[in-house]
Amino acid sequence: MTSFAERFPEISDIRVKVFSVRGAIAPRTPFREFGFSVPEYVECSNPRCKNGRFRIWPVIAMACSRVDVTFHKSSVCNGNERSRNPRIPCLYTFTIEGEITYKSNEPKPG
Description:
mainly beta, 2 helices
């Protein structure tokens, strides 16, 4: 298993906020916040959701490929609600926003 630091050696600091709420508009709270402990994915916060998750690392990889210092992405949950009909999709939306500091942008000692 690859660690975050191994996967993204060009990053010196990162702050990521992940919102998982019903509907498409992300409120300012509640959210999950990560630094270098960014997991590869997060689970949906809907207690009725089964198998819903959002992969964070691909979003960070895309931002790094463009050397973006900020990023933002929203995506509908890919899970299903637990009910008598297992095909009812989860109606929650993931929103991720973050800031990246790259090692190449750090001041040089001297």
